[in-house]
Design brief:
Blueprint (H helix, E strand, L loop, with lengths): L2 H14 L3 E6 L2 E5 L1 H7 L3 H5 L7 H8 L8 E4 L5 E9 L2 E8 L1 H20 L7 H16 L3 E7 L7 E7 L17 H6 L3 E2 H5 L17 E8 L2 E9 L9 H62 L5 H34 L6 E4 H16 L5 E5 L6 E4 L1 H19 L5 E8 L2 E8 L6 H4 L10 H6 L7 H11 L4 E5 L5 E8 L12
Parallel strand pairs: 12-14
Antiparallel strand pairs: 1-2, 1-5, 3-4, 4-5, 6-7, 6-10, 8-9, 9-10, 11-13, 14-15, 15-17, 16-17
């Protein structure tokens, strides 16, 4: 093949492909495409200059490949992983090369994520902290980053951290858990991946969380589960390191998606484990609490059977009253369990009606006075504009209010009167039950409406109960489309609140057939 036909053939080939094309005659490079100039950073003039030996350290390896035109993937330092095709055309070697480093990284990353998901969602699932550490380390390895970190939001907040995991030298991070400030705040607000430039351009990105390594390339993505943002996964490298590219961001976004599922799974497993522990503890306490009135009841029964003839009327009345109290305590326990079982089996479907608040609350106040022996045990506070009625199932609404008031009396009735406040809130009626007791810790507030949940203060005080009352309240209120909540600080009492619709909901539209 002469030089002129070669140049014509090369020109046609250069025109139809953007791959790197190199034509070699013996040991000399005689054609160098624009794609080669782009891939290797060597211009055509430099490559074809007299005495030039572009790719000299790699040519022998490239020309030793089978000359059948089949694609071979091979690392070619420092250019990455190339897909190489080799053919012999007359006296010339034709080598076509394409950079597939991104494809290889994407493929390897997806395979790694598949293995990771199987491990994280295995039957013997790890806890949340273990999941976060595994994901943080995988993010660093997958992208070649120098540092990685994963932070989870505390439920119900947008800037407080519940968990923090990282893969980096310990001295680069603060002892205390950082808050979602600065670079960690932006992905939470935008719900999208961000780079350092995005953070610099955002008002929320001012400031960094605690001590930190000098920031060079950086990419941070949110962990999104449905409508919720759970936290942020971030990778970073020192200044001057390779910038993170679109493949890194794509892998990080996919990894964050897998992490969100695994975190939800681990959180559910931890909650279930905690509920199981609580249930075991509560049932153990309940066995003791039921045995006490049973034992006392048997004692009073035997006393009446064996000694009634020698007892005065006053002594008999006292024994009968004590026996009734034993039955009342057992009745309270069983009612809670039966209500919980009923809600599980039959669900909660309100029978809608208008619930007049004044007479219902007056009955609750009167009942509390009888139980406690104090006329001022419960007080109702309603302003002149307070609603007089709400929409709901009268029995269920009464059950909710009695549960909240009874709970307050049991745990804080000794500390002062319980206050019930009624007010309007948008299209709902809100009832607040305020006590002046010991208060509730933040950690207990997060789970207090869960079944079998009892606060530390309750457990330490030895107060009887199954930890079902507030979970029943939540299910009854939710069935009405309302909401429940608690506001408390240790040593400052607690306010439990619920909302019910002010008006009955309209009829549901008929199902399409």
């Amino acid at each position: 093949m002469t030089t002129e036909p070669l140049q014509g053939t090369a020109g046609e080939l250069f025109h139809v492909t953007g791959d790197a094309v190199v034509i070699v005659d013996g040991c000399d490079v005689v054609a160098w495409s624009p794609g080669a100039a782009s891939l290797f950073g060597i211009s055509r003039d430099e490559a074809l200059a007299p005495g030039a030996k572009p790719l000299a350290e790699h040519l022998e390896t490239l020309l030793d490949l089978p000359a059948d035109g089949a694609a071979t993937r091979m690392p070619l330092a420092p250019y990455g992983v190339l897909e190489v095709r080799h053919r012999i055309v007359g006296p010339h070697h034709l080598v076509l090369m394409r950079d597939v480093s991104a494809e290889v990284r994407r493929s390897e990353g997806l395979r790694a994520m598949s293995r990771l998901s199987r491990g994280l969602l295995a039957e013997d699932e790890p806890g949340v902290a273990a999941v976060l550490q595994t994901v943080a380390s995988e993010a660093k390895a997958m992208t070649g980053a120098a540092f990685s970190a994963l932070m989870l939001l505390r439920e119900g907040t947008t800037d407080e951290t519940s968990h923090f995991a990282y893969d980096a030298p310990r001295d680069l991070f603060p002892e205390q858990t950082p808050r979602f400030a600065g670079l960690f705040a932006v992905p939470i607000r935008t719900r999208s991946a961000v780079r350092l430039a995005d953070i610099r351009d955002s008002a929320a990105g001012v400031g960094l969380p605690g001590r930190h390594p000098a920031i060079g390339p950086l990419c941070a993505v949110p962990l999104v589960a449905g409508a919720d943002v759970l936290g942020v996964l971030a990778i970073a490298s020192p200044q001057g390191a390779r910038p993170f590219d679109a493949v890194d961001e794509e892998l990080l976004v996919d990894l964050a998606g897998h992490a969100a599922v695994a975190v939800r799974w681990a959180q559910g497993a931890e909650r279930e484990e905690a509920r199981a522990r609580m249930r075991a503890e509560v049932l153990s306490t309940a066995r003791h609490d039921i045995q006490t009135p049973l034992g006392a009841g048997k004692g009073y029964t035997n006393l009446l059977i064996n000694s009634r003839d020698r007892m005065s009327l006053e002594q008999i009345q006292t024994a009968l009253q004590a026996l009734k109290q034993c039955f009342d305590r057992i009745h309270d326990f069983t009612e809670r369990l039966l209500m919980d079982e009923q809600l599980d089996v039959g669900g909660t479907e309100p029978q809608w009606a208008t619930v007049e608040l004044t007479p219902m609350l007056a009955e609750v106040v009167q009942d509390a006075a009888v139980v406690t022996g104090r006329a001022d045990a419960v007080a109702v506070r309603s302003g002149p504009d307070a609603p007089q009625a709400l929409a709901g199932d009268p029995g269920m609404v009464r059950e909710v209010v009695e549960n909240l008031v009874g709970n307050a009396l049991k745990h804080a009735g000794h500390a002062g009167p319980i206050t019930v406040t009624v007010r309007r809130e948008a299209g709902f009626v809100r009832l607040d039950v305020r006590d002046q007791g010991p208060g509730i810790a933040d950690t207990d507030q997060a789970v207090i409406f869960e079944r079998w949940s009892r606060s530390d203060v309750t457990r330490q005080s030895g107060t009887a109960g199954f930890g079902l009352g507030l979970s029943i309240v939540k299910r009854l209120v939710t069935a009405h489309g309302g909401a429940v909540g608690v506001s408390s600080r240790l040593g400052e009492g607690a306010t439990f609140w619920v909302t019910f619709p002010a008006e009955q909901p309209g009829p549901r539209p008929a199902a399409l057939t």
